[in-house]
From TrEMBL:
Classification lineage: Bacteria, Pseudomonadati, Bacteroidota, Chitinophagia, Chitinophagales
An example Gene Ontology biological process: enzyme-directed rRNA pseudouridine synthesis
Entry EC number(s): 5.4.99.-
Domain of life according to the entry: Bacteria
Domain RNA-binding S4: 1-59
This protein's record includes keyword RNA-binding: yes
Gene Ontology MF: a single term: rRNA pseudouridine synthase activity
Protein name per Swiss-Prot or TrEMBL: Pseudouridine synthase
Pfam families noted in UniProt: PseudoU_synth_2, S4
Top-level enzyme category: isomerase
UniProt record similarity statement: Belongs to the pseudouridine synthase RsuA family.
Native source organism of the sequence: Niabella soli DSM 19437
Keyword list, A-Z: Isomerase, RNA-binding
Keyword Disulfide bond part of the UniProt annotation: no
InterPro entries named in the record: PsdUridine_s_RsuA/RluB/E/F_cat (IPR042092), PsdUridine_synth_cat_dom_sf (IPR020103), PsdUridine_synth_RsuA/RluA (IPR006145), PsdUridine_synth_RsuA/RluB/E/F (IPR000748), PsdUridine_synth_RsuA/RluB_CS (IPR018496), RsuA_PseudoU_synthase (IPR050343), S4_RNA-bd (IPR002942), S4_RNA-bd_sf (IPR036986)
Length: 237
């Protein structure tokens, strides 16, 4: 069932499992709470009261997300969402892959390909992410080395692959590369050593960059980019 919902463009497989367990999915008007339910031909399925069916037309959109937009498909508080920015892109039901918090800008993938979304957000696939951070004060060498060594947060160790000063004359400007997709991970890493991130921009996600895409604008992925995302890591040992 969770795979069926993902193919229907409702959400990722992981989020679909939560939706099902929360009792928000019905099969033939009956609530189903088991994500492993086998969908049968002729089943009538609804999620959050809306009828769903597998998507035929897969869509892949790269958005250069601005600040003050939330990464969700719907917001009860009626705040601006990233889907407001791509209204003209497609009539298919699409959703963001992973999360960028409200005050973080940069590369965000939006799609209705549930299998790809699952792959890109699963921790075991270690999808590469690069951020440009502006701190409230210059990052000293002790803190720099501490972050590279690895800080431990409330939800476990937070390893960093690469850390660098973006400008040696302004050590508040930091580039950071990591694979984790945990909530607010970059901000929490700097907070752990006594710094506040004043501005955070994701400049790369899984090989995708915001090159030639203005803030608040979007473009469709090329066939090559989609292929690279689907088959990245196939040759990893």
């Amino acid at each position: 069932m969770n795979k069926y919902l993902a193919h229907s463009g409702v959400c990722s497989r992981r989020d679909a499992a939560i939706l099902i367990k929360d009792g928000k999915v019905k099969v033939n008007a009956l609530v189903v709470i088991e994500p492993g339910y086998k969908v049968q031909p002729g089943d009538s399925i609804t999620a959050n009261g809306k009828k769903v069916s597998p998507e035929k037309n897969l869509v892949y959109i790269l958005l250069n997300k601005p600040k003050d937009y939330i990464t969700t498909t719907d917001d009860p508080q009626k705040r601006k969402t990233v889907l407001d920015l791509i209204k003209t892109a497609t009539t298919e039901r699409v959703y963001p892959v992973g999360r960028l918090d409200r005050n973080t800008s940069g590369v965000l993938l939006i799609t209705n390909d549930g299998d790809l979304a699952q792959k890109l957000t699963h921790p075991s696939n270690e999808v590469r992410k690069i951020y440009a951070a502006t701190l409230d004060k210059p990052l000293d060498k002790k803190s720099f080395d501490q972050i590279l060594k690895g800080v431990v947060l409330e939800d476990g160790p937070a390893p960093v692959d690469v850390l660098a000063y973006a400008d040696m004359d302004d050590k508040t400007q930091i580039g950071i590369e990591l694979h984790s997709g945990r909530n607010r991970i970059v901000r929490r890493i700097f907070e752990a050593v006594g710094y506040e991130v004043k501005h955070l921009d994701r400049v790369m996600f899984g090989g995708l960059t915001k090159k030639n895409v203005e803030r608040g604008k979007f473009r469709f992925l090329t066939e090559k980019e989609v292929r690279n995302l689907k088959f990245f890591g196939k040759g990893k040992k």
